[in-house]
Amino acid sequence: MPTDAPTPSRVRASDELRQVALEQFSTIGFAASSLQHIADQAGYSKSSVLYHYSSKEALLEAAIGPAIDALEALLGDFVASGRSVEARAEFIERFVDFLLGNRLAVHTFVNQGQSLPGVPVIERANTAIRGLADSICEADAPLSEQMRFGVALAGAAYTLVAGATFLEQGRRAEADDADVRAALISVLSELLIPADGRTTR
Amino acid sequence: MPTDAPTPSRVRASDELRQVALEQFSTIGFAASSLQHIADQAGYSKSSVLYHYSSKEALLEAAIGPAIDALEALLGDFVASGRSVEARAEFIERFVDFLLGNRLAVHTFVNQGQSLPGVPVIERANTAIRGLADSICEADAPLSEQMRFGVALAGAAYTLVAGATFLEQGRRAEADDADVRAALISVLSELLIPADGRTTR
DNA sequence: TCAGAGTCTGACCGATCGGTCAAGTAGGCT
DNA sequence: AGCCTACTTGACCGATCGGTCAGACTCTGA
To answer: Which residues of B162-177 are buried (b: 16+ CB within 10 A; e: fewer)?
Structure first.
């Protein structure tokens, strides 16, 4: 079956491996994840992994690349739409949706972004994150303003991806994604929307 | 020199190794840090590292244990002091000071807390973090309230430790610690102080 | 002078790492 | 039938991992 059509019979091996790898990378870390372990978990041999992905790094690229693409697109749209309150509001909503839809990938490159120097896909992620910080907040803004943005973005990302893993583990089975989305958008709006001058409060 | 007195002549080898290890653990991660690399960086042999610390795990314990002790103490004082506005305000200040004084250690166990299951000192850190979240916010609080606390604490920690490493890298040489402290306390107060009822706004 | 504790090191161990390679299998095409 | 492509695998490689161990080099106190 050389075409990339539905192939309804079975899950593509490469997809399966990519998913298992993403879970490993996000939970125990890229460095601690071994190809052998990933292969075992997915029910293949290590050689098969290296057949579908030419290296461990290529596997990482396949696992988190799409999420970084999405983040870059999100960022591009935001800088193109200006800094109006409406643009900020829409950005916040899309950002939260991005986080919710890419928890594992975000967890991976947020938590290990500084730990893996020289890996191209990680550099791309770091550049995107830096661009995010730069675009939402002018460099000449007061420090407390910058801090507000940093806390909002990092806090949102970390609360969702890591908080979901161990902060709320146990005491909250799993909150409805819609509820989480609404709550997160509310908190982020509170921090980011007034933006200049702190009109409220 | 069997006593633990000043020993002014030279830095204690074990201290030097602990510091180098902490830097490695926090920047490239525990799993990716090798005893060989740590030893090279500190100017010792791998055997010397294993003389002073019986295992890689013991080295991790020595590197981040004191910070976890401080966090536990901070947490204990806070739960003992009640939830009044004054207690919260003091807690925020002490929490920020804790973050500022233990950047590398916090970076290590915040970012890798879920990646290193079974390591006692990490379990201790995770328990402390969970206790922190539980104590500052009742379990029956509305989701948006919980989210606010999560964003505040995680955002503050991440902004300081990781943000300092790569978010602001380059465009801000190094902000005065006092300024950072003030800005961070301001943002956290805004998020956490009203606490119940959201009287403002 | 000798004994002994404290420190440092190289040689070495088994295990595992990421990665290569040749062989083998199964299915579709002519 | 034959061939080709896609896929899977075990054997194997050099490097590196955490860790052990037996020496060797101080320095101190008797």
So the answer is: bbbbebbeeeeeeeee
pLDDT at B63: 96
Statement: residue B94 has pLDDT above 60: yes
Domains in chain A, ordered, with CATH? Answer: 13-192 (1.10.357.10)
Q: Which of residues 25-84 of A touch strand D (CB under 7 A)?
A: 44-48, 50-52
Confidence category of residue B3, pLDDT binned at 50, 70, 90: very low
- Reported for A163-169, long-range contacts at CB under 8 A and 24+ positions apart, including other chains, are A163/B150, A163/B154, A164/A103, A165/A27, A165/A107, A165/B114, A166/B113, A166/B114, A166/B126, A166/B129, A166/B130, A167/B129, A167/B130, A167/B133, A167/B150, A167/B154, A168/B146, A169/B130
User: Are A187 and B148 an interchain contact pair (Cβ–Cβ within 8 Å)?
Assistant: yes
**What pLDDT shows up at residue A166?**
54
Name which of A29, A112, A133 is nearest B167 (Cβ-Cβ).
A133
In 3D space, the residue among A59, A113, A26, A124 whose CA is nearest the CA of residue B28 turns out to be A113
Structure tokens at B42: 């500190």
Q: What is chain A's length?
A: 201
pLDDT band (50, 70, 90) for residue A4:
very low
Distance C27 C1' – B21 CA (angstroms) = 55
Please indicate whether, in this complex, the C-beta atoms of A151 and B147 are within 8 angstroms of each other: no
Torsion on CA atoms A167, A170, A171, A177, rounded to nearest 10: 70
* A31 vs B32, B154, B186: nearest CB: B32
A163, B186: Cβ pair inside 8 Å?
no
How many degrees, rounded to 5, is the angle at CA B48 between CA B45 and CA B49? 95
Query: What would the two tokens of residue A167 be?
Result: 């902060």
Residue A168: band (very low, low, confident or very high) from pLDDT cuts 50, 70, 90: low
Spanning CA of B14 to C1' of C11, the rounded length in angstroms is 24
* Residue nearest the C1' of C5 (CA based): B2
Tell me the nt nearest to B57, Cα to C1': D18
User: Which residues in chain B have their CB less than 8 angstroms from residue A183's CB?
Assistant: 142-144, 146-147
Say yes or no to pLDDT of B179 above 80: yes
